[in-house]
Amino acid sequence: MPDFARYAIYYAPEPGPLADFGAAWLGWDLARGAPAAHPELPGLPRPVAELTATPRKYGFHGTVKPPFRLAPDHDADGLVKAARHLATRLEPVTLDGLALTRLGSFLALTPRGDKGQIAALTALASESVQGLDAFRAPAPQSELDRRRKAGLTPRQEALLQQWGYPYVMEEFRFHLTLTGRLSGVDAGRVEAALAPALAPVLPAPFQIQSLCLCGEDDAGRFHLIERLPLQG
């Protein structure tokens, strides 16, 4: 396995229509580790390549354990083995579906479900963050400072110091990013163009039956290393 600059645990859709659309929309196929041709959608305010420039390198995914550098006393092979073992005790999660949503100034797919379903998803992410934390090197000061520029609550600051990222545990909000930052007018136009294209491929129910160990190459693009079926 090649060495990667950072590693992460992501949700990425199983092969199928949603995965295909997400890869094409962003222009990067996480599973193949290769560029993908953008779709042609009428009504967009700017080319798809411009709208998706920021999230492209990550591929179509929902973050479960945020990207991290390997601790000096661990290696990638050990991480793979630990991730496989973790997946054997994590239970699949079923939610009602996914919805196209404005999150601040960008668009994303967010889960639809009752409190119990959302709690199960949050628990899955929390166990992933904790279960592999021994492999995470402390975040450099520059990264911590960058996170703080967003303006963190005291609890988010505590999570940043403990886990290297402020939006984990009860602060976790699952989403699959579709765009970079947009003006209000552009967000409305992109939402209107995307909604009919997404409608046929959005799953109902939405099931998370596997997680993906992914790695970031030297160019900053993420690749699927291994899909991990949840067997708990």
Question: What are the defining features of this structure?
Answer:
single chain; 232 residues; alpha+beta; Cyclic Phosphodiesterase, Chain: A; 4-stranded antiparallel β-sheet; 3-stranded antiparallel β-sheet
Low-confidence stretches: none
Residue fraction in strands: 15-25%
The CATH homologous superfamily corresponds to Cyclic phosphodiesterase
Supply the number of helical segments. 8
Q: What would you call the quaternary organization?
A: single chain
Shape: globular
Total beta strand runs: 11
Q: Which fold name fills CATH's third level, the topology?
A: Cyclic Phosphodiesterase, Chain: A
Structure description:
The chain has 232 residues and is an alpha+beta fold. The chain has a single domain (6-138, 172-229), classed as Cyclic phosphodiesterase (Cyclic Phosphodiesterase, Chain: A, Alpha-Beta Complex). 35% of the residues lie in helices and 23% in strands. It has helices at 17-26, 48-51, 53-56, 76-89, 115-131, 141-148, 154-163, 184-198; strands at 6-11, 28-29, 34-35, 62-68, 93-95, 97-103, 106-112, 176-177, 206-208, 210-216, 222-229. It has a four-stranded antiparallel beta sheet, with helices on one face. The protein has a three-stranded antiparallel beta sheet with strand order 6-7-8, with helices on one face. The protein is globular. The two termini are 27 Å apart. The relative contact order is 0.25. The model has no long low-confidence stretch (mean pLDDT 97).
Write the layout of secondary structure elements.
Layout: E1 6-11, H1 17-26, E2 28-29, E3 34-35, H2 48-51, H3 53-56, E4 62-68, H4 76-89, E5 93-95, E6 97-103, E7 106-112, H5 115-131, H6 141-148, H7 154-163, E8 176-177, H8 184-198, E9 206-208, E10 210-216, E11 222-229
